[in-house]
């Protein structure tokens, strides 16, 4: 059975018991493997121990241990931001009563707009984090649009979120066209160390070459050489 180790970077202000309490309430032996169990965590409200919230009232319930494990850089930046703004945070009021009623007495971390750009991107990020297995279909990406995908790609790159990077590149892979094939080829090259980056780079480049040949053939047909 795969063993999940504690993340290397963790909030020193919280005890190990508090960090892992959400996971300890899950009986991993009930699942085929621990990764599939992790994928089911969001169905267990009683194990939620952290709310990520935004200034406009958005909130995402998560398991802080899992967040620290899957997105250590994002987690650490949130902790650092909280510590820097500790005095200011006491003056901020959470207006979402539904979150307060459903998850009372649960730790909250503020996610500033400079981290995610738009509040609507936060649930997409969290959904991607909990989706362990890569499954490239429209159901997983129904909240995406092309503009969001570029913003999410920037977030994934900044915070080293491989799971979100995978989803973004898979999204782009299905949308290669004449207007973006060069840009997507560059994206694929930037993340060529990943198999999905290689695939995007190769497919974008192939698409570009095929269309260059087509255009050349049309040109030769219209303007035949003597």
Q: What's the helix and strand layout?
A:
Layout: H1 16-24, H2 34-39, E1 50-53, E2 59-62, H3 64-70, H4 72-84, H5 86-89, H6 97-102, E3 107-110, H7 113-116, H8 121-130, H9 146-159, H10 162-173, H11 181-190, H12 195-222
Parallel strand pairs: 1-3
Antiparallel strand pairs: 1-2
Helix pairs in contact: 3-4, 9-10, 10-12, 11-12
Question: Characteristics of this structure?
Answer:
disordered N terminus; 2 domains; three-stranded mixed beta sheet; 3 strands; 226 residues; mainly alpha
Give the overall shape: elongated
Roughly how much helix do the residues carry, as a percent range?
Answer: 40-55%
Major beta-sheet overview = 3 strands, mixed
Number of helices: 12
Classification by helices and strands: mainly alpha
Radius of gyration, CA atoms, in whole angstroms = 22 Å
Strand content: 5-15%
Could you say how many structural domains there are in total?
Answer: 2
Instruction: Please give the number of β-strands.
Output: 3
Q: Mean pLDDT across all residues, rounded?
A: 77
Give start-end ranges of low-pLDDT stretches. Answer: 1-22, 89-95
Account of the protein in words:
With 226 residues, this protein is mainly alpha-helical. It folds into two domains: 118 residues, no CATH class; 93 residues, no CATH class. 54% of the residues lie in helices and 5% in strands. It contains twelve helices and three strands, in the order ααββααααβαααααα. It has a three-stranded mixed beta sheet with strand order 2-1-3. Strand 1 and strand 2 form a beta hairpin. Helix 3 packs across helix 4, helix 9 packs antiparallel against helix 10 and helix 11 packs antiparallel against helix 12.
């Amino acid at each position: 059975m795969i063993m999940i180790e504690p993340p290397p970077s963790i909030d020193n202000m919280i005890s190990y018991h508090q960090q892992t309490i959400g996971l300890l309430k899950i009986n991993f032996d009930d699942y085929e493997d621990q990764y599939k169990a992790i994928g089911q965590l969001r169905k267990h409200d009683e194990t939620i121990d952290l709310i990520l919230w935004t200034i406009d009232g958005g909130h995402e319930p998560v398991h802080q241990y899992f967040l620290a494990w899957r997105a250590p850089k994002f987690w650490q930046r949130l902790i650092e931001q909280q510590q820097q703004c500790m005095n200011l945070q006491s003056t901020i009021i959470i207006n979402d009563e539904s979150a307060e009623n459903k998850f009372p007495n649960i730790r909250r971390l503020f996610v500033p707009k400079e981290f995610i750009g738009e509040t609507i991107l936060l649930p997409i990020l969290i959904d991607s984090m909990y989706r362990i297995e890569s499954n490239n279909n429209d159901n997983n990406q129904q909240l995406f649009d092309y503009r969001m995908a570029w913003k999410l790609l920037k977030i994934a790159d900044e915070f080293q979120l491989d799971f979100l990077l995978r989803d973004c590149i898979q999204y782009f892979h299905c949308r290669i066209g004449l207007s973006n094939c060069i840009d997507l080829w560059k994206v694929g090259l930037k993340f060529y160390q990943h198999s999905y980056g290689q695939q995007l780079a190769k497919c974008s480049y192939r698409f570009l070459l095929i269309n260059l040949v087509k255009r050349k053939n049309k040109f030769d047909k219209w303007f035949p050489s003597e």
